[in-house]
Each structure stands twice: as structure tokens, then as C-alpha cells.
Amino acid sequence: MPDASADTPASMAKAGFSLPVKGTVLRGTVQVPAGKTTLTALLPVIQGIENVIVGAVANQAQAAGKPISCKAGCGACCRQMVPLNVFEAEALTDWLQSQPAERQAELAGRFHRALCALRDAGVIDRILESESVAEDEPMTQLAIDYFHAGVACPFLENESCSIYPVRPLACREYLVMSPPELCKDPAANEVTGVRLPVKLSRALHHFGRTVTLDPRGWIPLIFLMAWAKGGARPGEHVTGSGEELLQRFLDKAAELGKDQEN
Ligand code: SF4
Question: Which protein residue's CA is at the shortest distance from atom 2 of ligand 1?
């Protein structure tokens, strides 16, 4: 369970939270930015809570004799269309801009080449035209065709995620128990996914929909650099005190988690 250290910097404050998860309540204390803040600024805390949930589910799977097969060095799933909500897009933009110029240029080249490959496969135009890739329909034909284009995420290096600590929630939530080789074509093979009791990404998509014109509330990760050039920061419109905003976010995640169970 997340717990704030005794030493809280002046720019941070301690915040308690609770998250009902499948008949139990996850409670903890975390450090959040002091004063008014945004969901984008709270992302590291949200990622930490997600890690706790995923870790607990992984332990349960292990104990049940069905361990999670995802491992470093297996990036088969990193050719899928990754949904990135505005808060994650803003945080990743900040992260990119904090990188040395050479690294930024290298990543810009990779994003460009990946976009060109997806354009040549006829996928980009369909993404731009389509509003049908809703969050509840991850395996639409477009998502399948995107995967079949075989274009690796620009952050994938040696089949491992090069931004592992700041990777999107959707990547953290995609876990399988079936043999890794089946992930080479999840549309054709029977890939056994791990069902999480709550997906925090769904709550971020929900809040994303409240501040963007895009009905999805997210963009494909592959559009990140193009999106960042626009300079918009819609995520900064979702504000509150750290404790209040975090609890509002978790309440929405719990509500959406109940829908998931039904
Ligand atoms: S961000 Fe990392 S984990 Fe997610 S698709 Fe890209 S390389 Fe894979």
C-alpha cells in the first residue's frame, strides 16, 4: 500500500485516500503537490497506486498457479495502438522535453518513421477519420489492422520499454498469462489476459473526455509528438487540492470498476 515518507518536502503535502476494490478497500497515504494541482501533476501518484493493484493481481495469479508471462525483453504487445489520455500526453511531453537534445531528436526520428510506416499501411487515415475506436472496443478491426502493420512503439528498445517508469497506464494494465508466443497475433490466437479489478486508465479517459473535443478522451500514443507541437494543455483544466482531486479521481475509478464487473 502506498505510504508517504515522514519527510514531506515543503512543495508536497500528505494525503490519505481510499479505493474500494472488489469487496475490499485499498487505503494509503501518499505525497501530493501542496495547494491547487492538476491530474497531470498527480500522475506519478496514480501510477504508484496502479502499480500496487497490478502487483497484488500478479501475486494472486502466481499463487493460483497461473503466473503472468509478461517479462522484460518481450515487447510483442508493443505493436498495439496504445491509448494515451491528455494527462498522460502532457506528462510524457514534459518528460520528452526534459531529455537531452540528442535523445529528443532520436525519438522524433522514430516517431516519424513509425507514423510513415502506419500511413503506408493505410492505418493513419483511418484513425483520423474514425471515432469508432472507443475505449470499450479495444479489438475493433482498426486496432487489429494497426497491430498487423507490425510497427513498434517508438519507445521500444531491444524489445523492452525504454520509458518503463513513466509508461502509460494502458501498458501497465495489459498483462497475459498465456505463452508469450501467442501475443505475436492476439487476434488469431487465444491470448489469456489478466482481468484487473479496476483500471485506473478508464478514469483518466473519463476525465480526458471532459476537457477535450475528442469523444474518446485519448489519442493514440503514436500521435504524441504531433499533439505536443500544438502546445495545448487541456489536462490543466481538471484541478483541485491534491487530496480532493485524488479522491475524486479514485471515486470515479471505483464507479467505473463496478460497471466493469457487471
Ligand atoms: S510505452 Fe513502453 S510498454 Fe508501452 S507500448 Fe511503448 S514500449 Fe511498450
Answer: 161
Which residue of 93, 159, 171, 176 sits with most ligand 1 atoms within 8 Å of its CB, as the best mutation to test the pocket? 171
Q: How many helices (H) and strands (E) does the chain have?
A: 9, 8
User: What is the spatial distance between Cα 39 and Cα 208, in angstroms, rounded to a whole number?
Assistant: 10
Q: Which atom of ligand 1 is nearest to the CA of 167?
A: 1
- CB of 163 within 6 A of ligand 1: the answer is yes
The residue type at 202: R
pLDDT digits (tens, 9 = 90+) for 61-77: 899 898 899 888 888 88
Q: Which three cell numbers stand for residue 184?
A: 505475436
Q: In this predicted model, what pLDDT tens digit does every residue of 155-204 receive, in sequence order?
A: 999 999 999 999 999 999 999 999 888 988 888 888 988 889 899 999 99
Residue of 155, 158, 175, 218 to mutate, ligand 1, most atoms within 8 A of C-beta? 155
For residue 221, what are the CA distances in angstroms to 21, 103, 235? 28, 18, 16
Interstrand relation of 36-38 and 160-161 (parallel, antiparallel or unpaired): unpaired
* Ligand 1 lined by 13 (C-beta under 6 Å): no
Say if CB 52 and CB 59 are below 8 A apart: no
Could you tell me how far CA 67 lies from the centroid of its own chain?
A: 22
CA atoms within 13 A on the CB side of 186: 26
